[in-house]
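Record type: ASSEMBLY
Status: queued
Input:
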Amino acid sequence: MSGGIGTLREMREALDSGGASSVEIVRCSLERAEATQPSLHAFVGLRAEAALREARESDARRRRGEVRSPVDGIPIAIKDNIVQAGEPAGCASRMLAGYVSPFTSTAVEGLERAGAIVIGRTNMDEFAMGSSTEHSVAGPTRNPWRVDRTPGGSSGGSAAAVAARIVPAALGSDTGGSIRQPDAFCGVVGIKPTYGRVSRWGLVAFASSLDQIGAFARSAEDCAWLLEAIAGHDARDSTSIPEPAPAFSAALGAGVRGLRLGMPKEYFEHEGAADAVLGSVRDAVAELERAGAQTIEVSLPNTRLAIASYYAIANAEASSNLARFDGVRYGHRTANANGLTEMYCRSRSEGFGAEVKRRILLGTYFLSAGYYDAYYRKAQQVRALLRADFERAFERCDALVAPTTPEVAFRLGEKTADPLTMYLSDIYTVSANLAGLPALSTPCGFADGLPVGLQILARPLDEAMALRVADAFQRITHHHTACPDGFA
Amino acid sequence: MARITRAEVERVALLARLSLSEQEALRFARELDSFLDYMDQLAAIDTRDVGALAQPLVLATPSRGDDPAAAMDPGLVVANAPASAGSAFVVPKVVESEAEG
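Status: finished
Output:
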C-alpha cells in the first residue's frame, strides 16, 4: 500500500474483502504521519508499537469472524486533550509536559471497544484556546492546502491529519468551533454533536458548559460511524445525555427532498464575511434546492452578541477549570519558590502560555466581586436569548445552513498580534456551543484556492438531520473528495 | 480612559495565582481594556426578564446510585506529582506567616 490513506469506508471495504490488513493500513498511516511531520506538524506524538500490536489483534479478530464495528482495525488520531491510560496528554502545554494519563476517557474507551486503533495524538492550541493551532508549545501545525496558512484551531492537528490522508478519521473537541472551523479550513467533514451526546469524562476541561467531543472524517457517513463508537450515556459525566445514542448512519441516504432549510440572514449579511465564501455557500444551498430541499430565510437577531457572550462564559469557566493546575498533583512545578502562594503563582506563570494567561485573567476578572453581574451573568442571559433565537428558527425549518467561517484559512501569524481579531473569526461557530446544538461542517467549494465550509445546524439531539443533509450534499457534489496537492 | 490599569491587572493576576512580568502586565492591561470595550455591547441589551442560562442540557440529569467502587490505585494517583512521598503529595510549607493569615 502506498500513497494516502483512503476514506473510512474504503479502508473498511479493503479489510472486509481481504485487500488489506489492519497491520498494513496502520503501518501506512504511521509512516505517513512521520513523513509529513516536517511539512505539516500535525502530531505531537505517535504510539507506533501499541498501535501495531492492536492492529494484529484486530486482524486476528477478523480472521475469527469477530469484527466489532465499522471502525474495527481503522487508524484514528486523537487530539492531545483526550486522555488514554498510559499515554501522554499534554494539551500542547508546557504545564502538562511529561504527564501520562492514569485513566482512559470514555470516548477513547468507545474507540477501543469498537476496535479502532489510536495511532497518535494531534497538535492543538494550548488547552484548546485558539483558532489557529499556533498557540502550541510544540509549534504550529500547517494547512495541507497551503503551508503558509493555519489549519484553523484549536483541533488543527486532527483536521490536517485527515486532510493529508494520514488517517481516515480523528477525534477533536469543540468549545466554540474548534472542530468545525479547522474542518472548513482544511476541507474535511466534522461534527460537533449536541452538548452531552459524547461524555466529557477524560476530556481535559476548558469551558465545561460548552465543551463537546466530536469527529473528523472525509464524509458524513464516516463521521456517523465514528460517532456511533463514542456517543452514549456515561454516568461519570453528570451532563451526559441519559439516552442511548441512535444509529446515526441509519439516517443517511434519505436525501433532502421535502426538507425545509433555514438560511440565517444575519450570517449571510455579516460585514466581515468574504464575498467568495458567501458565494460558495450560496451555490451549495442552490445545489440542495435542486435536490429537492426548500429554503427559507430565518432570523437569529442576537447573533451580533454571540462573541461577547461566548468569550465571557468560556473565559470565566476556563479560569475556574484551570485553577486545578497548581503544581501539586500534576503538571509543572517551579524550581524556585518561597512558600505556597509563590509556588502556585510561579508554577502557573511558567507553565501556561500567553493566550491561556490572557483568558484566565479575563475570566477571573469577569467572576471577581463587582463584575460578576455585569459580565458573567449578563452573558448567560444573552445566551438564553441566543438559544431562544434558534428555538424560533427551528419552528419553521428542519436544519439551518450557513457558512462555517467568514473567510478561508488565514496566514500563520496574521492574527496572533491582535487577540480580539482572532476571537471575531469565530462568529459563525460559537452560537451552536452556547445553545448546545449539533453542528457539522462539510466542504462546499474553494475561494482563493482554499476550501470553504458549509455549516449545517440541527435541533438538539438531531445529529441525524445534520448528517443526512451533509450526506445528501456529498452525493450530488465532489468538494469533499478534493485532495490537497502532494497528498493524494 | 482606560478601565484596566496595571494595578487592576495585578489584582486580578493575584486572584488567578499568576505572576506577570512588567511587560506582560502592560500588554494584558491594554488587551483586557480593548476587550472590555467590545463587551460593552452586552450592557446595552435589556435582559430584565431573561433568566440566566448556565448550561444548554436538553434532558434532566439523572442521579446515580451512591454505590461503592474501587478507587484508583494511590500509586497511580501520585505518579504525575512533581513531588511525592509514598502515596502523599509533597508541598512547600503551607502556613507562611501569621500576617498572611
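Annotation: The first strand of chain A starts at residue 43 and ends at 46.
Annotation: The radius of gyration of chain A is 21 Å.
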